[in-house]
Design brief:
seven-stranded antiparallel sheet, nucleotide-binding, binds ligand LMANGFYV, six-stranded antiparallel sheet, binds adenosine-5'-diphosphate, alpha+beta, about 475 residues, Aminoglycoside 3'-phosphotransferase, Chain: A, domain 2, 18 strands, about 40% helix, 2 domains
Length: about 475
């Protein structure tokens, strides 16, 4: 099992010393194949522990079709000598899991051992479909059942309500068009803690969905490919970069504006259905303290990897300090917490938001606290900058492109889409000066975080948030 964990994409303990100290069986779904749900406790040398969910499919004989998911041939205490596979890779096992959900009536619960299935929406699950495991860099495992439903199996689990389930449940009940409807979820109330642990959720499969990040990249690529032609449409006429963006097939601004409206509508429902807190001047000043603290930690931790971050620190402190001088109060509320274009999906008539778990690095208790909605808005603004800059980098790698021209066009795309998103978000309400000061601080704070993320995960991309810092602190070109 330890060897399988070490290979698993979703296991967060890779590269750290760790050992499995407990494996607790929550339930056995009889099958065939028998499907068990185990909760594995992983302990680190500093004494900290993490819980991971491992659903297993057990067969008396080896199954060649899923060799890649073999956890091990072994003698299971309850099942005897078996070959055990990670169940999300196995269609037979996923059919067993789906049938357990389908056997639960809407607005009701059912139980198998320590596993409790909950259903909310009036939707007849299609149990005749085949399951397909999503590939890609996911922190959890998502399995589509035909084009009917999507099961998300949470891997790192925590006692208490999972925010993704909680938010999908409230938004589904409120009839929000901006999430995939939640059909049900599974939890365990036995075992590792006094509080139940949420283990999985099943929701509407968004058949026509296109990833917002991919769509934005396609827009920037089209712009940069067409821009030369558009820039000189007729002899003697020369368009500036804003006009080129406007006239190009890469104009994404209408979508950005609709996305801004969708995020505002989601915020409104979240404000109405979760606790809110009124933040006064002292609370707002505490935001600046938090941002300063994150900056100091990043400057210290990244001293060797990104020494230039320290050069931006004084100007960044000024951006954060401006928040301390605001005479505002604002309503803190439940937010998405980790919003970027990769968490948005475009379906035929709408934008949908996914993955409401918040910033995975933060403890659960912190992730569900009321926060400023500007955090989500800032995350999206950063994402438009990322989309423009990442395509600009790809084009700059090609022969013969003028770097300054590319940069200016990418800036124009980012600026146009950031403005469109903000316009959609704010609707008819004009942003006040205080809103802009707060938003700038959240954006700078996010860029500081991104420098650490990129330095550790994609060192070649660290220039993207670094360049943003220069612009946000006024020491570089403004986007
Ligand atoms: N209801 C859905 N229908 C279709 N695809 C979805 C749905 N929800 C999420 N996805 C896709 O699955 C991917 C992973 O989902 P996400 O909730 O972000 O999982 P993780 O927490 O593992 O990152 C998303 O990027 C999105 O493309
Ligand atoms: O996807 P996660 O929620 O785990 O978030 C982490 O990875 C993101 C990258 O996948 C990273 O986002 C950064 O890069 C995006 C482009 O790949 C860009 O759209 C975002 O604006 C930028 O922050 C995120 O920061 C990190 O926490």
């Amino acid at each position: 099992m330890t060897a399988y964990l070490d290979r698993a994409r979703w296991f967060g303990g890779k590269g750290r010393d760790h050992r499995v100290t407990d494996v607790r069986r929550v339930a056995t779904l009889p099958g065939p194949p028998a499907v068990t749900i185990d909760i594995v406790t992983v302990r680190y040398p500093d004494g900290s522990e993490e819980l991971y969910q491992l659903p297993l499919a057990h067969y008396p004989e080896p199954q060649e079709r899923i060799t890649h998911a073999l956890v091990g041939p072994h003698t299971d205490d309850a099942l005897g000598s078996v070959h055990s596979y990670d169940a999300v890779h196995d269609r037979e096992a996923m059919a067993v899991y789906l049938r357990a959900f389908a056997a639960t009536a809407p607005e009701d619960t059912s139980r198998v051992g320590g596993l409790v299935f909950h259903r909310i929406a009036e939707h007849e699950l299609d149990t005749e479909t085949h399951s397909t495991l999503f590939s890609g860099e996911q922190s959890n495992s998502s399995v589509a059942f035909g084009d009917d439903s999507l099961l998300k199996v949470f891997r790192k689990v925590t006692p208490g309500s999972n925010p993704d389930i909680e938010v999908h449940r409230e938004l589904t009940r409120a009839g929000s068009p901006h999430v995939a409807a939640l059909y049900g979820w599974a939890e365990t109330d036995e075992g590792t803690s006094a509080e139940p642990i949420d283990l999985a959720m099943i929701q509407q499969f968004l058949r026509t969905a296109s990833d917002g990040w991919d769509l934005a990249l396609a827009g920037v690529r089209t712009l940069l490919a067409e821009a030369d032609e558009l820039a000189e449409p007729r002899p003697g006429e020369r368009l500036d970069d804003d006009e080129v963006v406007l006239r190009s097939g890469g104009d994404f601004a209408g979508e950005s504006e609709r996305l801004g409206t969708a995020v505002a509508e989601v915020h409104e429902v979240l404000r109405d259905h979760f606790p809110t807190t009124r933040w006064g001047a002292a609370d707002v000043a505490a935001i600046a303290d938090g941002m300063d603290a994150r900056l100091e930690a990043q400057v210290r931790d990244l001293a060797a990897l990104v020494p230039t971050l320290a050069l931006h620190a004084p100007a960044l402190r000024d951006v954060f300090d401006a928040v301390r001088h605001l005479d505002v109060s604002l309503t803190a509320q439940r937010v998405h917490g980790d919003l970027h274009l990769g968490q948005t999906l475009r379906v035929v008539h709408n934008w949908k938001l996914v993955d409401f778990e918040g910033e995975p690095a933060k403890p659960l208790a912190e992730r569900v606290l009321p926060d400023s909605p500007w955090r989500d808005v800032a995350g999206m603004l950063r994402s438009f900058d990322y989309a423009a800059r990442s395509v600009e980098r790809d084009f700059a790698d090609g022969a013969g492109e003028d770097a300054a021209v590319l940069s200016s066009r990418a800036s124009a795309w980012a600026e146009r889409n950031r403005a469109a998103f903000l316009a959609g978000y704010a609707g008819s309400t004009a942003l006040t000066d205080s809103d802009r000061v707060l938003l700038a601080a959240y954006e700078a704070d996010k860029a500081v975080y991104e420098i650490g993320y990129e330095a550790r995960n994609r060192p070649g991309w660290v220039d993207i948030p670094l360049a943003a810092l220069a612009r946000l602190t006024g020491s570089g070109e403004d986007t």
